Amino acid sequence: MSASKSLDTDFLSSEKRTLFRFSVLYILLTVIIISVFSFIYYELQKDLMLQEKKSTLQEYSKKFLYDLKQLHINFDKTQVYPRYDAFDSAIFDNEKKLIFATSDTKIKLDKILYLHDEVIHLVNIPESYYLGAKYVIIKMKDDGLWLEQTRREILIFSTITFMFMLIVGYSLLRLFLKPMRDAIQLLDRFIKDTTHELNTPVSTIVTNIEMIDRDMLDEKLLKKINRIDIGAKTISNIYQDLTYLTLGNKIISNDEEVDIEHLVLERIEYFKSLASAKKVLLQMELRQNTSLFIDKGKISKLLDNLISNAVKYNKINGSIIIIVEDKKITVSDTGIGIAKEDISQMLERYTRFNKSSGGFGIGLNIVASIAKEYNLHIEIDSEEKVGTKVSVSW
Amino acid sequence: MVKSVFLSLFFLISSLHANIYEDNCVACHKRLPVSIDKYFYKYLLIYSGETDTKNAIINYLKVPVKETTVMSDSFISRFGVKKATKLNESQLQEAVNIYWEKYKVFGKLK
User: Fold this and answer.
1) pTM for this one?
2) Which residues in chain A have Cβ-Cβ distances shorter than 8 Å to B52?
3) Which of A77, A191, A255, A293 is the most exposed place for a label (fewest CB within 10 A)?
């Protein structure tokens, strides 16, 4: 099994959009090319058919002109226009005024041989204008056999060409995407390996710090221990994120009714040391207590990522307020904020807008992933140099 | 419909009271062995439409020369070229209009 499959690696939505656009454009171009060739082929077949019928029409025209001449000579005796079973006819004077026609088809006098409404027209200009007829039109019904044959050929040609072009397009796409796919696989493999190697040392550090009796420590040592605590928690958070990222989809959820106020207070306590290191005020505003039926580990991960980001991108002496209200949690910070045009990309994996702080750009992707799993609605509002507000509602 | 009624009346009145065409054209052509309609169809054979045919007849009547006649050489040799008309422009136009209406092909074919 390849690494990409085992890690459920997929393309980012922007890459998917690019692929989709490429595919649409490629298919559209293929269809246009096929249509143009089909049209040219149709026109050629039509011309071929017209040329084949031309000699027959000229024969009819000759016969008709002979009869018209006879009628012209004997017009004082008879005015019966010549009619035939095999074809229809019409005559026009030099002002293109209709003298007589045996059928009602609309006629174009500027063309010599053409097909219109399944009727083949031959426009003839005789040397002598019998009965004033400068334009003699011979009309013959098209049997349509050539059209059936041409349609069949175009359909077969179009299908084969389209399938061929699809195969070519797919091969090209795979070829072009290989470097990008390889890069993503490499990154995911690296994260998986790193995660595995971090597990034991992180657990040892966190457990041992928790076991230290801080009351017994002098102030200087306590500060040092606190700094170690903050560092260990930061590593622990990254470790948990990476674990979720690599195994998240395979973890079986254990959903339960989670008290949000209790959870928020618990997470505030966890992040207290991290926030105080940056002199950031971290507090909760309870407007109305609420609960959510969810896996506690996952909602903690979601909250941790939001709080961790709020601390990480906050300014010194800034503040973070977590507002709990009915079916909604809002994390507001007084941090660096983000440009409006970048907000839509915030939830994508490996997206980072501030390279000065550490991170892999996976935190908010995890938030989005958990939100998607539990149908939570995420709303991000941010202003550069003012702060960011992330709301999760359900 | 109105037009045909009007034309019928026109020809009825024309037959009762000889018109400019009857007086100046038919009167002379009666003396020739070729009936007047044959000349009309000769013009039609060459000029096709109403405007061109009427103009050709008027031009010939004003300046009748061998080079512009529609009749055959043998006919000209035998009967010669007619004299130029003495009718003025409007009279000529009126006479030719009557001539056109009388022998035109439009509406006569069955």
Assistant:
1) 0.56
2) 94
3) A77
